[in-house]
Amino acid sequence: MELARIKAVTFDAGGTLMQPWPSVGHVYSAVAAELGYGSVSPEELNEAFARAWKLKQQFDYSLSAWFGLVKEVFGKHLSSPLSQKLFDSLYERFSAGAAWRVYDDVRPTLQALRQRGYRLAVISNWDHRLKPLLADLQLTEYFEAIVLSVDVGATKPAAKIFEHTLSLLKLPPPAVLYIGDSMEEDVIGPRECGMAALLLDRDRKTDECLSSLTNLLSLLRGPANEF
User: Fold this and answer.
1) What is the pLDDT of residues 28-74, one digit of tens each?
2) How many Å apart are CA 70 and CA 27, to the nearest integer?
3) How far from each other are the two terminal CA atoms of the chain, in whole angstroms?
4) What letter would DSSP give residue 32?
5) Distance between CA 172 and CA 5 in Å, rounded?
6) SS3 of 31, please?
7) Using CA atoms, how far apart are residues 21 and 103, in angstroms rounded to an integer?
């Protein structure tokens, strides 16, 4: 991987730039309580969400896809079927910055990269809530492009979403680095398109990965070079 040739750095969103706060389960539990569903364990909801997310197939980030996932997560934890009101409230809650936390290493890294002349963009499997969410979190200003799977009609690791970004940036694949927290979606996918890619693993469960975005600053030592 020739990082000396990189002119643009692109990022995944969830799990890379920010995370649900305090957790998915805590948000689900709080919204359910607000609507009179009683106390539902955040920890149990977190476990249910992790299982449902892992088992999801052909998830296109549409309203119907999200409704099915949320229904699966609550499952036995509600005495009645998931209501449209509860789903709508959850969907709206996750569209606001208050339900998210930007990782501490994000803004300093983005600022440093931009000062060095690197072009920055986001490539994410997400619905239309992401752009206003990034604006609410005051991250939009760092990125010249925010590419969403719902706009492109393809989800990572499909080549189409990466190729679309390359076209927007008007750069060849070796000039663009992608960073994310999923080996399949964020490393294998872009590398198959000829891009450079690095795995972000803040829990350090794997070797040869970034444990923090600040590690990137020592890998991209100098200013962005002309390709």
Assistant:
1) 999 999 999 988 999 999 999 999 999 988 899 999 999 999 999 99
2) 12
3) 15
4) H
5) 10
6) helix
7) 11
Q: Which amino acid is at 99?
A: A
Between CA 128 and CA 133 the distance in angstroms is 9
Q: What are phi and psi of 145, to 5 degrees?
A: -150, 140
On the question of a cis peptide bond just before residue 190, with omega within 30 degrees of 0, the verdict is no
Tens of pLDDT, residues 158-171: 999 999 999 999 99
Tell me the two tokens of residue 74: 């609550």
Before 81, cis peptide (omega within 30)? Answer: no
The residue length of the chain stands at 227
**Helix pair 42-55, 24-34: axis angle to 10 deg:** 120
Whole-prediction pTM value? 0.93
Closest CA to 202 of 118, 114, 96, 109: 109
**What's the rounded Cα separation, in Å, for the pair 47 and 67?**
18
For the residues of 46-73, what is the DSSP string, one character each? Answer: HHHHHHHHHH--S----HHHHHHHHHHH
Long-range contacts of 222-225 (CB under 8 A, 24+ apart): 222/4, 222/116, 223/116, 223/117, 224/6, 224/7, 224/8, 224/116, 224/117, 224/118, 224/119, 225/4, 225/5, 225/7
Cα–Cα distance measured from residue 139 to residue 106, given in angstroms and rounded to the nearest whole number: 9
One-letter amino acid identity for 216? L
